[in-house]
Amino acid sequence: MNIVLLGPPGSGKGTQSQLLAESFNLVQLSTGDLFRQILQNPHHPLYDELQIIKQGKLVSDEVVNKVVEDALKKLTNAKGIIFDGFPRTVAQAKALDRMLSSLNRKVDVVIDFNVTEGVLLYRLLGRRICPNCKRVFHVNQGYIECLDCKVKLVTRDDDNEEVIMKRFKEYKEKTVGVQEYYRDSNCAYISLTIDDIDTTPEEVHQQIISELKERDLV
Ligand code: ADP
Ligand code: ZN
C-alpha cells in the first residue's frame, strides 16, 4: 500500500507518517527531511539550489522529482511507501505516477488533512523537533530533549511567522490542483478535518485507521 499525505505545513503529515509507518510496516519518504539533510552538506550539488527553502518557496519540480526518484531506488523492497510532502504540484503528481508504475506500484491511498489556520499557526510556532529521529513535540509539553533519543530539541529555521505565511500561500496556490488530480483518479481519497488544537496525534491516527478499514484497505 502506497500512501500520499496532502496537507498544509503543520497539518501533521510528518507525525501521521511516522505512526502509519509503525502500524503497517511501511517506509516514509519525506521530501522536507531529504532536503534538510542535503542542506547539512555545503558540498552537495543541490546545496545552492535548495537555499530558496529558507524563503518558504517551493523547490523546482525538476529537482524534487530527481531527489524522489533517487530515494525510491533505495526502497525497492519496501512493502509500501508513505509520501510526506510530495507531490505538491500536479507536475509532481504526474511524475510520481510514472515513477511508481515503472516499479509496478501505484498510489493506493491519498489522505488529505484539512486543518484550520489557527491550529496550524499554534502548532508551527510551538513546534520543536528531534534532529535525530524527527519526532515532533510542542513547546507547551515542556520537553527539552527527545523522549526517545535524549537529544536536545530544535526549532526549524522556516518555522517563523513570516516564512510560515509564505508557505501557507504557496500551499494554497499549488495544492488545489493536486487535490483535484487525486479526486479524479481511482485511488482511495480520505479527507480529514481538524479544527481543535487539543486533537491528539493518536486520535487522528485512529481516525485514519478506521477510514482505511471502512474501505477494506487494511
Ligand atoms: P512544510 O510542509 O512544513 O512546509 P516540509 O518539511 O514538507 O515542510 O518542507 C520544507 C520545505 O521544503 C518546503 O517549504 C519547500 O520549500 C520544500 N519542499 C518540500 N517538499 C517539496 C515539494 N514536493 N516540492 C517543492 N518544494 C518542496
Ligand atoms: Zn528523537
From TrEMBL:
The record, for InterPro entries, names: Adenyl_kin_sub, Adenylat/UMP-CMP_kin, Adenylat_kinase_CS, P-loop_NTPase
Q: Which UniProt keywords apply?
A: ATP-binding, Cytoplasm, Kinase, Nucleotide biosynthesis, Nucleotide-binding, Transferase, Zinc
Q: Which residues bind AMP?
A: 31, 36, 57-59, 85-88, 92, 156, 167
Please explain the role this protein plays, according to its UniProt record.
Catalyzes the reversible transfer of the terminal phosphate group between ATP and AMP. Plays an important role in cellular energy homeostasis and in adenine nucleotide metabolism.
User: What HAMAP family does the annotation carry?
Assistant: Adenylate_kinase_Adk
Gene name tied to this protein: adk
The subunit field of the Swiss-Prot or TrEMBL record says:
Monomer.
| Molecular function GO labels | AMP kinase activity; ATP binding
Transferase as a keyword?
yes
Q: Which reaction does it catalyse?
A: AMP + ATP = 2 ADP
| GO CC annotation | cytoplasm
**Is Mitochondrion one of the keywords?**
no
The catalytic activity of this protein is classed by the Enzyme Commission as 2.7.4.3
Name its cellular compartments: Cytoplasm
**Its annotated pathway?**
Purine metabolism; AMP biosynthesis via salvage pathway; AMP from ADP: step 1/1
This chain belongs to the protein called Adenylate kinase
The similarity comment for this entry is: Belongs to the adenylate kinase family.
Which Pfam families does the annotation name?
ADK (PF00406)
- What residues bind ATP, as annotated? 10-15, 127, 136-137, 199
A Gene Ontology biological process noted in the UniProt record is:
AMP salvage
Annotated region described as NMP, given as residue ranges: 30-59
